Fold these 4 entries.
Entry 1:
Amino acid sequence: MTVRVERRGAVHVLILDRPARRNAFDGEMTEALDAALNEFEDDDSALVAVLTGGQDFFSAGTDIRAWAGDPTERGGPYGIAGRRLRKPVIAAVEGVAAGGGFEIALSTTMIVASRTATFSFPEVGLGLIAECGGLFRGPRALPLNVARELLLTGERLSAQRAYDLGLVNRLTEPGGALEEALSMAERIAGLAPIAVRETLRAIEAVYPADDEDRWAETAVAKDHARASADSAEGVAAFLAKRAPQWTGR
């Protein structure tokens, strides 16, 4: 299984488990995360989930060799990026959260990160764009100019700076992100379930109110980028481990 599930009372721990590809998503992994989240949402005894990639990395995003499969009916891209969460999901991030991995973290309710964590949108270096919510969730979670910088340069944001800017809720020493996320999850699970659910529902109803339009604008940008010669060159260069030769076409 590329996504393992551990149940700790009312808390589900969802573990991305494709280490040979740094938890990069192919179609099977998208379906597996979607199924794990569907099971969590449909289980009345499950109140909070923690999503982690383990101790070495969170996720490198899309597996460029295989791609990430089609969006799922309930979860959208990666099985989570288009999902309207009905229960809290906390990301526990160690190491790299790049591209789709960063977008997955942005899709969760809160982020706990260790000092090893880095966040980035490297898509421009492949002739692509952040296709799975990064174009609008990045500027929502970060100061606009910081989000622009990340999206336009592909550079990495350190865990410390992400915490200072308010993207990361809690910062831990290396190896401590999961336990801190579990502590938060257990605290939330011990509170009134209806109040927690209704609070989350209200927040999600207000802040993503215009996301349908934002997804549409993302789709336009995605289609233009993917149809370009530069995107084919960027992916080919990445796979060949060479510098791309951009033509602007």
Note: The beta strands are 3-8, 11-16, 48-52, 89-93, 96-98, 110-114, 118-120, 157-158, 170-172.
Entry 2:
Amino acid sequence: MRRHPRRGEAGREVTTTAPTERGAEIGRRIGVGLMYGLWKPRVLGGWKVPASGPVILAVNHSHNIDGPMVMGVAPRPAHFLIKKEAFVGPLGPFLKGIGQVQVDRSGTDRNAVTDALSVLTHGGVLGIFPEGTRGDGDFASLRAGLAYFAVRSGAPIVPVAVLGSTDRAGRLVKALPPLRGRVDVVFGDAFEAGDGSGRRTRTALDDATVRIQERLTAHLENARRLTGR
């Protein structure tokens, strides 16, 4: 169990628990059972995820199950950045217990940044939805957070495309694929986001974001050709 000292109210130091790989492994096992029980995942290119060391999974986001699906089928335990609105009631302690990272999207969440970098510093897998929120899942609008974590940590990015049926028939919930329907999860080739200079200036991050978007968009197009989605 890793702990981070932080400043709380009145400037007093408080200690919070950072996400652990053990928790993420428990989440992975739960995800495996749940995803394979409700849908029919087909995983392509899982071997492209580096077997060790820090790595960032950049996942498109068009269904509510995208995070749990990747968490369940990825070859390594993953810690996802998840909006704080999901950490309500009993779900909050559960998500923290399985190693997920709470993030406040209304501004720069320093606690989330610290936890995410801690995952990468300790050689773990960080999952990010670079579009920031669920939408068309086409990587059309990327936020700068992915570039920051990639350039700051030096971790390679593995693009991940989650492709479910576009047919609305059989859906019990609009934001979910039809139950027992096939869901393709396609992992792409790992790549470096930086230009090799190690610079973390605003210009360097903007340039990295452009490079990332090009690679993610190309991967998504290839995944659609490969799966016929």
Note: The longest strand covers residues 157-163.
Entry 3:
Amino acid sequence: MKRPAITQPQLAPVIGVDSHLPAVPAAALLPQAIRARLQAQHDWTPEFAGDGGLFADRAPAGAAVLVPLVRREAGLSLLLTRRTDHLRDHAGQISFPGGRVEPEDDGPVATALRETEEEIGLARRYIDVIGQLPIYSTVTAFQVTPVVALVEPGFTLQLDPVEVAEAFEVPLAFLMDPAHHQHHRFEFAGTERRFLSMPWQGPQREYFIWGATAAMLRNLYRLLATA
């Protein structure tokens, strides 16, 4: 089956906003609280497992992304990237740094750290890995392991211009408030797809966080909200 092309996801109709759900309390967004919750994952079920490659024409492949939570005075912020417009997969989309597992990688953590350093130049000495979220299956047949880490400030980024157009930060508290979570429905050739978005207005422009990135963040919300 041909993959439904969503080239302008921000134009897909919004069919619901989760303002009825509680935001994650401030105390649960502290670094030590997130670390403890990741280390004691019980009594919760991820909301999104992914599309499972339903629209891909290739065998599943392993991948890993870093969920980098930067320690800022105002609280944790999430470091995200905007992909360049010419990439084959996920062109122009907002994503975590990360990529495909290579044979020399010793597990998903090694993949996430390597890809992060290659894509945005974030040195490993600033990164403290604190846990992982469940694997998420993308429509492009990647089995993605989200690796959660705390990032110490003071780093300097060096973006790979081939893959990354921009790096920016979003307050974690904003993303962990379902009042900012929108549900969309999209129809293509008689097939329906639904996806989640978390649009964020930055200082210069709006960033439309959607798809797999938003789904993995929603899974993080579910984990922290059930602490």
Note: The chain is about 20% helix and 35% strand.
Entry 4:
Amino acid sequence: MDKNNLPKNLFEPLVKKEDSSDRISTPSRTFGQNARRTLFKNKIAMISLFILIGFGLLSLLGPGMNEYGYDDQDLNRSKMPPHVKALKDVSWLGFNGTLSGKFEGKTVEAATAKAVLRFENQEDFIDIKVINEGNGDDIPAKVKATYHIYEAKGMQDTYFWLGTDNLGRDQWTRLWEGTQISLMIAIVAAAIDLVIGVAYGGISAFYGGRVDTVMQRIIEVLIGIPNLIVILLMVVILKPGIISIIVALTITGWIGMARLVRGEVLKLKSQEFVLAARTLGTVNLKIITKHLLPNISGIIIINTMFTIPSAIFFEAFLSFIGLGLAPPAASLGTLINGGFASLRSYPYLLLYPAIVISVIMIAFNLLADGLRDAFDPKMHK
């Protein structure tokens, strides 16, 4: 077909309209909107956020869900296993209110005698299941004993959801009371680190010169002292307690934040928007608060989110080695310390605090990873 003889009705003239030629088809979003959109699309980070919210609510509401106080002692109910009314018929979940163990002996009778001795000589409330009858000295007899401790103590209608400790205190109440205290210590310590670190690093970098030199030499001296020694020394001087742990965690905890903020401010303070603000006569305080801090807010938030689980772990470590909270106060560290002493006989005393602290630390780290991606412009789509 000859292109010169094509019918004109096959073509439509293109008319350029001045009002729509430069129109942007996609909606315009701010940096904050893009960050929020990226965070909401991160399923792992959002699941972690909901888990942390759930643990936070349980730490506030959990101690009031039953009639037992966190220091309500009764030796008659010491070391009772978990007992939940709705789950007591599902034995494999471990909430049926029984203690069990495997015992060996030369004969079935000898193994049974060990089981009876182990479970307070309450033979009438112990179920024995023979696993292996043995054949004398070569292969010992083995039995599995199940002790119905709630029935033995006449407490069939009493329910301790996570059991009790060696003083008869309800573990459910103490677990969430301890979670509340651990979260409070970590968040307060992280907040103090945030304030001191941002102020110190921002002033050091913004003013520079001799001010920066002196302030950085102070940081180098503090870094040269082992962090653990400083913390242990402060805990010993101030005596164990919430205040001493917070002070110990914040003495050197702000240094990482200060160095991070200093590096970011050094990078930004020579940018054109800062020079423009100086030219217009903006005072230094306003330049720092209105121009520099908003541009490094993402880095600050992310670093703070990583600081919180570190503080939780350090508090648990101090409590585990006996330098944490003084009894009868509870934290996740003190609960783990108490459960570790009875690990072989009563593993549930260690299991639940260990699960809670592990889940909290993992959730905080995953949420911090999500925030890091959200505040990275390269990740915005």
Note: Residues 297 and 375 are 9 Å apart (CA to CA).
